[in-house]
Amino acid sequence: MPSNALTRNTASRPVVGPCRPASRWQISRGLLGRLALGFLASAAAPDLARSEPPGELPAATQRRADKTPQRQRERFRFAGERTGLWPKSWPRLRGSSAAGVGGSLSVECDLATKPWEWSIALPGSGHASPVVYHGRIFVVSADPATASRTISCHELTDGRLCWQVDRQATRDHHHAQNSLASSSPIVDATAVYWSWASAERLWVEALDHEGRRLWQISPGPYVAEHGFAASPAVWEHVLIVPMDQDGPSSVVGLDRTTGRQLWRLPRQTARTSYATPLVLEGEEPVVILSSMAHGLTAIDPRNGDVVWERSCFPRRTVSSPITVGDLLVATCGEGGGNNLLVALRPGDHENSEPSVAYQLERGVAPYVPTPLATAERLYLWGDRGVVTCVDPASGATRWRGRVGGSYSSSPIAVSDVVINVSADGEVVLIADADRFEVLGRRQLDEPSRATPAVADGRLLLRSEQRLYALDLTQP
User: Which residues of 326-361 are buried (b: 16+ CB within 10 A; e: fewer)?
Assistant: First the structure.
């Protein structure tokens, strides 16, 4: 793979202070941009083995218009819907809706004591979370000896290996709590998409469900003090690849069928963001990005135009944004625990700014784990093992409880149980209730920093080198 050394650019880093509105609204370029996007998409010829990067990043620019279009607040609708049934698939990090909600059917077993339905050794180690599509699991690992990256496919019913694909890569530097395989894949009816960093470049690849390459590209250089970990997202025909990094930053929209670049939005540079984009659908679809340099940004996935932006994060973003009713919730922080949660209310009428509904600071807001919203509660699972349940609308604390351990994975909800896994591999179960109650604990017997998944009545847990399945439907 080609190497492209990059000098870290610190001169362009903005000074980021407390939450404040962006200097002005940034608006889409309108009909002309949409027509151009449609032309590019229709003209994209199959290019299944393309690996050369696109042209150099243009200078960061601000998109402006003479006036702000009418903005009407509506109830957010996820790209995937919450359901009372067991989700058939779990196609991305935290499920199809990115909400981390695994259905509300009653769990028929004792999650703390029931034997595993199966467990298997993975072809490598890593922290990437498993994803599932129609009975098949896809998981990313790395070989500690050679630094090669592997994506493997397994049967959901028994963990049997269907296929694995290996890619040579370099042993790039990463934080002790990161790994060479921390970016989770995303899968749809056509393909599974995965990404990795090697030789200071980002690589993105699409494989069909049998492991055959559809396309592979490098969308540009990638340099990050703590290594690579961000995961892509999909909206309809667009694969959205976040590249908020220590070098020149951007977010890129790729045609998911060919890998062709549809658009690129230049971004300011601050500390690398590890947040996964949040796809929201309504009358006008938006993708929510979270970074220290920009705060929370809504972009149009059809053309990459900025819809609105609110600068509000003085520190690095690692957790991913979520919706809580009509609010957007996201966090920033640092290793010392100086964290901040912001609940943002997007503008609801012409010329209105996105406003901060509430903020929660040090001791409450998580840094790495993404918050979890259930029907009536918002859970903030702290990195140091303190869980805080707050009122979703106001942020008022309902209760706090200590579960112990340290955490990088994000909690999910199954029925009336909230589940997370500590860095030491302890699975902790608490009640989704108005009081703190630990329902049980069990061990994976090795470290884990991956977020659990739920599909077709099975709970999937990934440790560094193993994958576990628990049947939720049988006593």
Answer: ebbbbbbbeeeeebbbbbbbbbeeeeebbebbbbbe
Match 């150099």 to its residue by tokens. 56
Q: Where do the structural domains in the chain lie, given as residue ranges?
A: 26-41+88-471
One-character DSSP codes across 257-275: TT--EEEEEEE--SSPP-P
Q: Does domain 26-41+88-471 have CATH number 1.10.150.20?
A: no
Q: Encoding tokens for residue 25?
A: 């609204």
Mean pLDDT of 116-143: 96
pLDDT attached to residue 405: 96
Please list the residues that pair with 238 across neighbouring strands.
Answer: 235, 255
Whether the full predicted model's pTM is greater than 0.85, yes or no, is no
Please report which confidence band the pLDDT of residue 269 belongs to, taking 50, 70 and 90 as the band edges. Answer: confident
What residues are paired with 414 via a beta bridge? 417
Alpha-carbon distance values, 1 to 4, 142, 218, 219, 370 (Å): 10, 17, 10, 14, 34
Mean of pLDDT values over 127-134? 96
